[in-house]
C-alpha cells in the first residue's frame, strides 16, 4: 500500500491533516567563546493541541562543523506515483516506498547526510554519510544544494565541479540504497552555471536556474563579479537528461534562483525570482510557461524597486546607485486558492500580482520610489486596486502572453 502522504493532487494535499512535526535546519556559527559548533536538524512541535507546541522536541547534531545545511527533502513523496523511466532507471514501486528519510546536503562541506525519522520521529538519527570525495568521484560535482524526491530516484543539484568552478548540475541517488548513480545530464548543451531545479512531471520537463560557481559565491558577494552571475533558465527532457532550450532573462538580470512550478502537474508554468537587476537594483519575479507554439518562454510578472537611500546608509558598492536593493532570494507557492509569497505577495495565478511591495530594511528611507514607465505605472495602479478589492478582476502586466491569461482564468 502506498504511503498515505503521497497525494495525487495539490487539492488532496491541502485537504489532508496538518503536519504535527516540522524538521528545521539550524546553522550554528561560533559562539561567544569562538568555538565552532556543528549544524543540526531540530524537530519542532507544530500541533496546536500539544503542550509543547512551538517548541523544539528533538535534535540531531551533525558530526562535523561547517556543513551549512541547505535545501533538504524526503527520500520519497508524491512523485513516486509517477511511473517514469529516466536514464535507464525505472520508476519507484510506490507500494513499498515511504516518506521516512531526510536527505540533507551540506552546501559548504559537500557532505550529504541521510537521516532516519523512524521509529521515533522526535529522535532522528544519521544512518549514512556521503563524503565529498565520493560525490566528486561519482559525479564530478561538489556543493550539493537542493534535494527533490523524483519519480525514479532522489535528484540533487550541485553548484559546481569538485574544484569549485563550473559546471554545476544535477546528480541522482538510488532511492533504496542512497548510493550515487552519477550525474543526471546526458547532454548539458550550453548549461554551465547551476542552482535550483524543478519539473513538470506530466510533461517530462525539468527546469533549472543559475547562480554562480562556488568560487564566485563562497567568500561573499564580490561586486567585481556582477554581470557574471546566472541570468538564464534551462529546459530539459526529464526522461533523457538532455538540454532542450535556454531562456535568457537578459544579462542585467543577475542570479536567477528559486523555482516554484504550479502545483497542478498538468499546468506548464511556474515562478522564479531574480535577485537584482544591474540596470536599477530592482528585484523581480518572472513567470515561465510553455507557449502555444510549444516553446518555453518567460515574462516578468513583478518588479520590486530599490529603495532610495543616502550614501551614509549604504555600503561602498551601493553608494553610486543611491538605493538599497530588495534582493529577492526565495519564494513559496501556496496551496490552490491561496497565495504565493516572496518579499511581496501575489495571487495564485500566473502573471497577476495582487500587491508588490519593497523589502523591509532598517535603512529604508522615506523618500520617493525610482520612476517607472507609463505602462508600468498604469499596471502598478491596477495591481494595487486589485489587492484591496474583493472582486475577481485580476490585473496583468503589459505584454502578458495569451497562454498565460488563459491559464490564469483556469486557476492554478
For the residues shown, what is the average pLDDT?
82
Strand order of the largest sheet: 4-5-6-7
The general outline is: globular
Gap between N and C termini = 29 Å
Level-1 CATH class name of the largest domain: Mainly Beta
Estimated structural class? mainly beta
The domain count comes to 2
Low-confidence stretches: 343-349, 353-399, 407-412
Spell out the helices and strands N to C.
HEEEEEEEHEEEEEEHEEEEEEEEEEEHH
- What is the helical fraction, as a range of percent? under 10%
Computed CA radius of gyration, to the nearest angstrom? 22 Å
Counted by DSSP, the helix tally is: 5
CATH topology of the largest domain: Methylamine Dehydrogenase, Chain H
Strand-residue fraction?
A: 25-35%
Would you count the extended β strands for me? 24
Task: Note the main sheet.
Answer: 4 strands, antiparallel
Specify the CATH architecture of the largest domain. 7 Propeller
Amino acid at each position: 500500500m502506498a504511503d498515505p502522504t503521497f497525494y495525487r493532487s495539490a487539492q488532496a494535499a491541502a485537504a489532508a491533516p496538518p503536519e504535527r512535526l516540522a524538521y528545521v535546519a539550524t546553522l550554528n556559527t561560533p559562539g561567544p567563546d569562538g568555538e565552532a559548533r556543528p549544524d543540526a536538524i531540530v524537530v519542532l512541535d507544530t500541533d496546536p493541541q500539544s503542550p509543547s507546541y512551538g517548541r523544539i522536541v528533538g535534535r540531531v547534531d551533525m558530526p562535523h562543523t561547517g556543513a551549512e545545511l541547505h535545501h533538504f527533502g524526503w527520500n520519497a513523496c508524491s512523485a513516486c506515483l509517477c511511473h517514469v523511466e529516466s536514464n535507464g532507471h525505472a520508476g519507484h514501486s510506490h507500494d513499498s516506498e515511504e516518506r521516512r528519510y531526510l536527505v540533507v546536503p551540506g552546501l559548504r562541506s559537500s557532505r550529504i547526510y541521510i537521516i532516519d525519522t523512524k521509529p521515533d520521529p522526535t529522535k532522528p538519527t544519521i544512518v549514512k554519510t556521503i563524503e565529498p570525495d565520493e560525490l566528486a568521484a561519482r559525479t564530478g560535482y561538489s556543493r550539493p544544494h537542493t534535494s527533490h524526491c523524483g519519480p525514479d530516484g532522489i535528484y540533487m543539484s550541485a553548484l559546481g565541479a569538485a574544484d569549485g568552478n563550473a559546471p554545476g548540475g544535477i546528480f541522482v541517488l538510488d532511492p533504496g540504497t542512497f548510493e550515487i548513480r552519477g550525474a543526471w545530464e546526458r547532454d548539458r548543451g550550453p548549461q554551465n552555471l547551476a542552482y535550483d531545479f524543478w519539473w513538470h512531471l506530466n510533461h517530462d520537463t525539468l527546469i533549472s536556474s543559475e547562480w554562480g560557481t562556488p568560487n564566485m559565491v563562497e567568500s561573499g558577494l564580490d561586486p567585481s563579479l556582477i554581470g557574471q552571475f546566472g541570468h538564464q533558465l534551462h529546459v530539459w527532457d526529464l526522461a533523457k537528461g538532455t538540454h532542450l532550450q535556454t531562456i535568457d532573462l537578459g544579462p542585467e538580470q543577475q542570479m536567477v534562483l528559486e523555482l516554484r512550478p504550479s502545483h497542478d502537474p498538468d499546468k506548464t508554468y511556474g515562478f522564479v525570482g531574480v535577485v537584482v537587476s544591474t540596470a536599477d537594483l530592482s528585484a523581480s519575479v518572472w513567470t515561465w510557461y510553455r507557449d502555444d507554439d510549444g516553446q518555453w518562454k518567460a515574462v516578468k510578472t513583478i518588479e520590486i524597486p530599490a529603495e532610495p537611500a543616502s550614501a551614509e546608509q549604504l555600503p561602498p558598492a551601493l553608494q553610486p546607485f543611491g538605493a538599497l536593493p530588495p534582493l529577492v532570494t526565495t519564494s513559496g507557492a501556496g496551496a490552490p486558492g491561496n497565495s504565493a509569497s516572496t518579499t511581496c505577495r501575489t495571487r495564485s495565478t500566473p502573471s497577476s500580482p495582487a500587491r508588490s511591495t519593497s523589502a523591509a530594511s532598517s535603512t529604508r528611507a522615506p523618500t520617493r520610489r525610482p520612476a517607472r514607465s507609463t505602462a508600468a505605472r498604469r499596471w502598478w495602479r491596477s495591481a494595487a486596486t486589485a489587492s484591496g478589492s474583493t472582486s475577481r478582476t485580476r490585473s496583468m502586466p503589459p505584454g502578458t502572453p495569451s497562454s498565460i491569461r488563459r491559464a490564469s482564468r483556469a486557476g492554478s
